[in-house]
UniProtKB/TrEMBL annotation:
InterPro entries named in the record: HAD-like_sf, HAD-SF_hydro_IG_5-nucl, HAD_sf
Biased composition (Basic and acidic residues): 350-369
Gene3D superfamilies (UniProt xref): HAD superfamily/HAD-like
Protein name in the entry: 5'-nucleotidase domain-containing protein 1
Organismal lineage: Eukaryota, Metazoa, Chordata, Craniata, Vertebrata
Amino acid sequence: MSEYFSLSDCDVIGFDLDHTLCRYHLKETSRLIYESFTRYLVEHKDYDKDLLILTPASWDFCFKGLVVDLEDGNLVKLAEDGTVLRATHGTNNLSTEEIIKHYGSKREWKNFDSLNTSFTKSTKYYFYDNYFDLPGALLCGRVVDMLRKRGNEVNSDFWKDIVAAIDHNYNTSAFKEDAGWYFPSVKRDPGRYLQPCSESVKTWLRSMKSAGKVLLLITSSHSDYCRLICDHILGKDWEELFDIIITNALKPGFFSLVPQQRPFRTLVNDVEESEGLPSLDKPGWYSQGNWPHLHQLLKTMTGKPEPKVVYFGDSMRSDMFPASTFGKWETVMIVEEMEGEGIPRCDAAKTNEAQAEPRGKKGKFEDQGMKAPSAPSEQWGSYFVDSHKSGEGDEESQKLTWCCHSIHKYSTMAIPSVESIADLPLNYKFPRFCPNKPCTTGYYPRPPDSLLRKFQSQSS
């Protein structure tokens, strides 16, 4: 395998939508998601109204890559080998001694092998790896605090209520029915939550199409929400940019092999036809579906027995792991956390964000100190690297987080945003992650600060 990766070598270029092509105003969106979930618990499940009250400082807890242990109400941050680097019970930190008491002297999280090898959902834990459900980590912590305050036992029962709150706001009919709080709010004022794509990104997409590439959009969002987003971020003619559009893809299940695979369905006025398609015969807009049928169509469209596909996404569980493991695709991970560690936002992204600043909201939370969910956390540290101490008297060592290790294992390369590469020529050669290279190789435009520091200290 070459040490370099180039888009010009790919026949097919695919994109996830949310937090990949579409960047959100993370602070505004996170507050809306938290409020949407919490209002359901308060109004439908009789939870304390105090859960709705947040200070800007509360958001420091909101950190991608946490795993909530549903059996005891702990949230854990894991090292690449499954060691518990940091942990809380609810939102309250566990000391080194408490972590060792709970997880043993080696600080091993017992469900790590299951999570690390399959990324599948479990009744015992939940992995927070995308911004759409991330505010739920803060809510979980605060619900555990509330149960403790009431003197109630903490077990997995509370999770059923959290799942019901997520389903109430995000189920496929919620957009059309104006159900819940999330979709009605975004529909009323999309500019408050969505950042339009820069002209450089639109030009980049068109240039790939002109170069003969097949362009894919694969999103788990339903067709009506996808259309709202794309109308806003790409313009009314956005459908012309893509050869194949797949909504309600139900990733990661989209990449599953026979016999679990779901058939593709056609859409009529955003309603899925009840009869599934036996195969995919032509480009167009489809719902649900599966990777093997898509692969057959791509072979026909490119005229190649094994078309080379690259897929851009932001979720390890839904995008990177299944696309690389089952689809054998090249994968580019969007890691917004890079911008919180020394990588400046590109000019196009900054200009875009300034132009799209939520009306009447500028400065409201920034001045009060609300942390962006992609920024490093005082409570949880860096997304990429963390210090580890086995016990009292032991020296601290720097360990890669499990999330960081997974990026290197399942991604071809990592970038902070599509804007960061949109102005480069299609034949630009990016260094890729390689087992025989330092793991700082593969980040563009450069590695995050914490990784650089770790490897500079090792080499000094």
